[in-house]
Amino acid sequence: MLRSRHATFWTAAGLCLIASFTTPVNAVEPPARGSTEAESATPSASGGDTVAKALQLVKTAIDQDYVSANFAGAIQKLDAAAVSCERIHCEANVQARIRIYQATVKFVGMGERDSGREALKQALALDPKVALDGDLSNPELVALFGELGGDVNAKAEPIAESDASGPEPAPHSEQREPPKPSETSMHTSAQGAVVIDVCPPDFPGCDTGEKHAMACRVDSDCMRGQSCVAETCGASHPKKNGFSLGFQQDFLLLNSTDQVCSGETGWTCFEGDSQAGYYGTKPYAGREAGNELAGGVQTGTVRLLAGYDRFLGNHWALGARLGVAFGGGPKAPGGRSFLPFHGEGRLAYWLDGNSEDAVGFHPYVLLGGGIAQLDAKLSVTVFDGTGSDTRGERRRVNAWYKSGTAFGEAGFGAMLALAPGQGPVAELKLLQMFGVSSTNPSLLVGYQIGL
Fold first, then answer.
1. Across-strand partners of 399?
2. 3-state secondary structure (DSSP) of residue 1
3. 306-334 tens-digit pLDDT
4. How far is 222 from 235, CA to CA, in rounded Å?
5. Cβ atoms 54, 91 nearer than 8 A
6. Neighbours of 278 (CB within 10 A)
7. Distance (Å, rounded) from C-alpha 147 to C-alpha 124?
8. Which of 66, 387, 394, 406 has the fewest CB atoms within 10 Å, i.e. the most exposed one?
9. How many CB atoms lie within 10 A of CB 309?
10. d(CA 18, CA 28)
């Protein structure tokens, strides 16, 4: 197909070649007396050589370099052809087709999506009706082409080989044998799979040959932007669904108080960690009474959370977390029991998007809210009240702060992707509890798998 599918391109380019031989050059003075006709025709011949060189560069870049996976060589030749065509003012369709080839090599072959996108924009600006070559494209390139306004249903017309090679030779002139194709070639199928052919598709004078999908064991055996599925290289697709499991450590930011066990909101005191040890005695409130804390950060409950996230486009992800909390305090008489259930909804924005070949460090920010209770325990010294100015018995009790049971959260996180959509994750969040108010930093570590 590589020689038989590009007619429009080479036809238009051939017209450009013919025009370079026939266009008058008004600024040239008439030749001096005695000059030969061959000398006066030299400028036109020079222009023809430039067009022919540009066409040959494009043909070599696609028929030889691209199909044999020499993408750097293909880009070098296509860039040179584009410069030549601009200099001699090739038709817009010809220049647009060169940009299409540049985009294909960069996007499909080299995995350079940004520069590939830019080349597509330039092609459509030159000729809005330009078409992709289906034999060289993959689904991601086709989708991007449509997103930029191209007609994804349009097909590149076959290339007439005679248009690229110049006028046909005289009947009795010596014919050169066509160049022998390489024994193997590589191209990307419409489904995005990398395919090895014995010969390029429909190469003139070459048998079709048996086709083999590129074998692999791991993703690194494939081209960039490909992944190894069932030991065969194929197009990677962004993972739309993420499943995670993680542990979250809660912390409480506590204010200083000297009424810890005297009915301060959120606080209850126990001797030990059972309901039977509830400290209901009114503590001594005089000088050096204890019953106080200086405030600061205190570790609290621990949570095991299972998560699900669904990407909505390339950056936004809507998710949920369900789990169970451990380390809550005992129930005070007339109070509420610890709520171990954790449920939240969240919205995350991934700063670098959800790329199909994204590996490495990928940060995101998040907002969310839900239902949970967060408890923390401190050890406090109190003295029993005696009804007088003297201190009673000294006791060491556990003071529990119980906050919640509703919350809102904001934070940031990151994934260290070891494979597309898969790797360890970490989040640092700030939770604001409602009901019994508190402000709580939380740190989560876990692992996510994308499907």
1. 269, 378
2. coil
3. 999 999 988 999 999 999 999 999 998 88
4. 10
5. no
6. 18
7. 12
8. 387
9. 24
10. 20
d(CA 445, CA 425): 6
By the 10 Å C-beta count (0-12 exposed, 13-18 middle, 19+ buried), 35 is classed as: exposed
pLDDT digits (tens, 9 = 90+) for 214-266: 667 776 666 655 667 667 776 566 788 999 999 999 999 988 888 889 888 88
- For the chain, give the number of residues: 451
CB-based burial of residue 180 (10 Å sphere; 0-12 exposed, 13-18 middle, 19+ buried)? exposed
**Dihedral pair phi/psi, residue 70, rounded to 5°:** -90, 75
Q: In whole angstroms, what is the distance from residue 217 CA to residue 228 CA? A: 7
Query: Where do we find the tokens 């052809």?
Result: 81
Whether 127 and 93 have beta carbons less than 8 Å apart is answered as yes
DSSP 71-118: HHHHHHHHHHHHHHHHHTT--HHHHHHHHHHHHHIIIIIS--HHHHHH
Among the listed residues 109, 104, 111, 120, the one whose alpha carbon sits nearest the alpha carbon of residue 194 = 109
Q: For residues 423 and 242, is the Cβ–Cβ distance under 8 A? A: no
193: closest CA among 206, 211, 217, 209? 211
Are the CB atoms for 300 and 327 separated by under 8 Å?
Answer: yes
Top-confidence residue, 67 or 163: 67
Angle at which helices 42-60 and 7-22 cross, to 10°: 170
Quote the distance between the C-alpha of residue 32 and its chain's center.
Answer: 66
Could you give the CA distance from residue 29 to residue 362 in angstroms, rounded to a whole number? Answer: 65
pLDDT of residue 20: 45
| Residue of 241, 244, 239 lying closest to 448 (CA atoms) | 244
Q: Which residues pair with 368 in a beta bridge?
A: 346, 409
Q: What is the mean pLDDT of the chain?
A: 77
Distances (CA, A) of 364 to 28, 69, 313, 350: 64, 35, 15, 4
The CA-based angle 350-309-439, given to 5 degrees, is 75
| CA angle, 416 then 420 then 422, to 5° | 55
What's residue 172's pLDDT? 43
d(CA 56, CA 330) in angstroms, rounded, equals 83
Name the residue type at position 22.
Answer: T
Q: Rounded to an integer, what distance in angstroms lies between the CA atom of residue 451 and that of residue 106?
A: 27
* Radius of gyration, CA atoms only, the chain: 37
Do the Cβ atoms of 6 and 156 come closer than 8 Å?
Answer: yes
